[in-house]
Amino acid sequence: MKRINTTTRYLLLILAAAILNRLTDGTMNLIITTCLCLALIPAAIRMDKEDKEYQEWMDEEIKKREAQKKE
Fold first, then answer.
1. Is pTM, for the whole model, over 0.85?
2. What percent of the chain has pLDDT over 70?
3. Residue 50 in contact with residue 8, Cβ under 8 Å?
4. Which of 32, 37, 2 is nearest to 17 (CA)?
């Protein structure tokens, strides 16, 4: 069974908070909404970092395959 990575867990927690926010009223709703907005910033940074790492890995794999074809 494949493990869920950290970013996915983090996004699922944000989703749970958003669902909880739907059930709240007044000032608590505003507080949770503010926390959700702030929590999305590190999530976006993590996703960007993972994408860069994946792109670098893919570039290396493409170079390896091109080198094998030339040989």
1. no
2. 99
3. no
4. 32
Name the packing angle between helices 6-22 and 26-70 (round to 10°).
160
Distance CA 5, CA 15 (A): 16
Contact 36, 21 (CB under 8 A): yes
Structure tokens at 52: 């860069």
Rounded to 5 degrees, what angle do the CA atoms 13, 17, 19 make? 115
Q: What's the gap between Cα 7 and its chain centre?
A: 4
| Interacting residues of 61 by C-beta distance below 8 A, sequence separation 6+ | none
CB-CB contact of 36 with 14 (8 Å): yes
Residue with tokens 């909404």: 33
